[in-house]
Amino acid sequence: MIVGRSTFIVAVLNEHSIRSMQTVLAPLLARSAILKLTGKLRRNQLIQGRLRSRSTRPESDDNVGLSSVMAWKNEELLVSLLAGAVYLTVAHTLLPHVSQGSEIPLAIRSVLGEESDPRCTIFIIEDGSGSASFVFTDFHFWSPCGVGVYKMTRDGNTNVTRAQLSWVVHQARQLRQVSWCVTVVVVSDDSAFLADVTKWGVKGSLLAWSTKLLIVTRLPLPQLHQIYSTFSMTNSMLLIVEDILKMLRCSVYIYLPYSSARDSAIRLAIWSPQHGLTLTTSLPVFPDKYIRFLRRPTLAVAMEGFYLREAGKVQEGVRHHYVMDYLAQGLNFTYKYVSPADGTYGSKQKDGSWSGMVGMVSRQEADFAPGPFGITANRTEVVDITWPVLIQYTRILSSRGTPQVNPWAFLLPLQTNVWASTLVVFLVLPAVMWLLSSFLFARKAFLHTWGKEIFDMTRILLQQDYSTSALAEWKRLVMAGWVTVALVLSKSYAGNLMSSLAVRHIHQPYQTIRNVLDDRMVTMLWATNSSSVQYFRTVESGIFREIADVESKGRIKYILLSDFPQAIKTLVKRGDHVLMEIEAVINLIIGKHFTSAGRCDFYLSKERFLPMIMAMIGQKNSPLVPALSRRIMSMTEAGLYNQWMKYINPNATSCMYYPSSITVTTSLSLANLWGMFVVLLVGHLLAYFVLCVEMHTNTSHINLLS
Fold it and tell me: What is the pLDDT of residue 155?
């Protein structure tokens, strides 16, 4: 009677009410059957309890009768179970319902419409098996910006399928370039096809974080283990269609970042025709899984030994890194360090592979590397760059000379042009005075010679006595002017000489690259496989081409960054080697050396060259890079990085502005004044030569007279 009534009601209803009637009647029939079964089960449980309580008593007619009743009840229960099954079957068979082909698109549109942008384009890929053709009906209402549909043809040939996927991914990338945003919907019940789509999507750079991916399938989660790694690293969701007793239900799942095969997916939402889309967690649809990790993963961080040893802090026997701790706390992850085998930052090899930390990140042996790394065009081809951490220049680190007095310091009080002007006056002025005396006073010309005028001017310059009583008035005026000049020169010279003798000069010869190149006895030290080395090896002209040319002459050595401290204590300290490196590394080394030695043994060049933007690196197309960039931006804007560098290296600036000369009050030694004795010796030799010439001249004159 109930069935007949239900059939009649459905017959008189219009098509619009079929779905609601199916929703109401099916649960009612199922509930009626379930209530009957539940009541019978409870009565049987009471009877079984009574039997157990009487099992200890002797068998009687009452017990036998009760056992017969129990057997009859079990037969009645079996009949009730069959009746319940009939009820459920009738409820879903006689009630006409809308096909799944029209329901599943509603589920997809509900999921996409939850967080959709009207400017996004939808890109649909179907495996061509026909099991998912329902999606393509009425799809032009999905997005106002358009929908792209690609149906794959499958003939069992793997190569053909891969060629089609490559072409489809290329077309989807072109669509993404002309669209504000793209959502890719893949419909298939073939796990191998889904694995190929995700693989080629990642390989073809289609599944960037800005591209949303929704996979619609009837496969259960255990059969989708091949794509969990891709889903954990992309902005992707699973829409699994479930048919429970012919009742449609769709579950939305996501995999959290860095999930393993043992980790279960999170059910984000449930969709049903009766209730629509219902979120089961606090997360929205297509959540930003990298803004802060829900499950705390352990990331592999590539770190070179020098920074790991020098740029950290030790607490409770464990070395920590300020920057790494800041990133780990903000993004909620733990980390472990992995070091490259060659101990370098990384460069491109002849076979096209990459060495060092760049190679580890590009091969996915490490999730990211804090570095910081210099940004170059070659590196951006294999890794992604974060927000810049700092800007650095390369400088020259050289050994500081010992304080010493210049033995030729007695020539330094006056500049070269002053000495030259004084010499010209010494030669020209006596000649002019002699010529005037010869022409104007011819009778007294024998009293005035050129040599005598020079001798008189020398006596005045040396502040000796000089009589002008026998001179004419005009000569007295000339000599008065010379006395004034000589007085200023002598006093200035004496004062500057006293100051220069009390000053110790510290030799700092290498202030520019040109100074280093011109000194053929000095050798340059560069970090192995650094970005600077890659640059001067590829440049074709200029001063850096000259640096590359001297490599063939043995004037360049490459050392690991971890070997810098030892090389500075031996090679650079010796004075015949200079280190070419960025300021951050040099300041760290100098500060550590000053902390241990208590003195400044090195100096930095005045010239800065090769400006470099420094940043961290991550895997190509990894959504971790934007998440790190947000934390790095907040770190640099707050000035935390510079402050941490001060904590790590408090003496970094102690030797930065160290003076090139110092003043002392010690006694002068022969080593400080030997230049003056050289002048004295040269003067005596010159006097001896003049004496020999005069003796020879006098002897010749006497011979002529005799």
Answer: 60
